[in-house]
Write a structure and sequence with these properties.
This protein is α/β, with parallel strands linked by helices. The chain is 23% helix and 23% strand. The chain binds fe (ii) ion.
Length: 273
Amino acid sequence: MRLLFLGDVVGRPGREAIVDQLPALRTKWKLDLVVINGENAAGGFGITETICDDLLNAGADVVTLGNHSFDQREALVFIDRQPRLLRPINYPARTPGRGATVVEAANGGRVLVINAMGRLFMDALDDPFAAVDKALHDCPLREVVDATIIDMHAEATSEKQGMGRYLDGRVSLVVGTHTHVPTADEQILPGGTAYQSDAGMCGDYDSILGMQPEEPVRRFVQKTPGSRLEAASGPGTLAGIAVETDDATGLALHVAAVRIGPHLSQSRPHFWE
Ligand code: FE2
């Protein structure tokens, strides 16, 4: 199965990169399933129903979130009628929405997607390892689904590596999100799980984490109230990870970083081109 995961969409540059390029990539690479993290899609903070629909219509099968899940208050309502939008699975149980879903891929296979959130340097949440374990127990790879993707939305690389190693051999892909800078450690772990500590963002890399740099810099050098953070507005780059899985095992056969656009070194899945 051919899987593509794209990192945090930040503002209009990220959305436009997705809408402009994903439909053609889906065809060119014969993608079976696409997951996009959309928690920063609305000007850097949260997601609206219209934007979620735009990402799904551009070719995403599932949109994941993170600590900014409900920055746009409308998400508290529409998440319950959009089964393809996930918030972290280890949020308190009464939180609207869901943290995992099973969707049908283009090749007819079934794919479990789970959104989890780390606890180091982030909000106090339930144990993400236990929460993911329960979802995998309910929906095991090879028995119920043909591939499993975990978006581990976390600040600390160690915690993301911990999730990767904890799940190695039990899922198809563990990919980190949240830090908005792609890491160069895409690999297949010893047990067969594809892994990348952070997918990077889909957005304008002439920025600080996708935001115009002036105000973030000012906040570092001057401890005074300032203005709002605004998403950068230059051309966006797509960033994420491409994974081909073995249909018999659900584990990874090939993995490559995806970086398409200005500012970063370019990377594509050569095994599909
Ligand atoms: Fe985040």
